[in-house]
Design goal:
binds zinc ion; rod-shaped; two-stranded antiparallel ribbon; mainly alpha; single chain; 4 helices; two-stranded antiparallel sheet
């Protein structure tokens, strides 16, 4: 039995991935898989964090020609943040 450096749970030796030459990783397969997945799950930031219905509404207002300031005010958003998102091309429904 070996203790995983990540989750500190004691596990069977075959739960630790082989590194070759008989050596094994210090972290178990579960932790390794979790790490691997975390890398692929992109954290939602900025505009993407808003609710989808809100985002759809904002985009339709933009398309309707409303002023950024008015839209920002209406949705309780910071005008500069909103402008930043727009410059970054974040104002899309992903
Ligand atoms: Zn572990």
């Amino acid at each position: 039995m070996t203790i995983c450096n990540q989750c500190t749970i004691e596990k069977e030796i075959n739960e630790f991935p082989l590194l070759g030459k008989g050596r094994r990783r210090g972290i178990c397969k579960d932790c390794r898989n979790k790490k691997r997945n975390d890398r692929y799950i992109k954290k939602k930031t900025g505009f993407e964090k808003l609710q989808l219905t809100k985002r759809m509404l904002i985009i339709s207002e933009l398309e309707g020609g409303d002023k950024i300031k008015d839209i920002a005010d209406r949705h309780g958003l910071n005008y500069f943040t909103f402008q930043y998102w727009r410059r970054q091309g974040q104002l899309i429904i992903a």
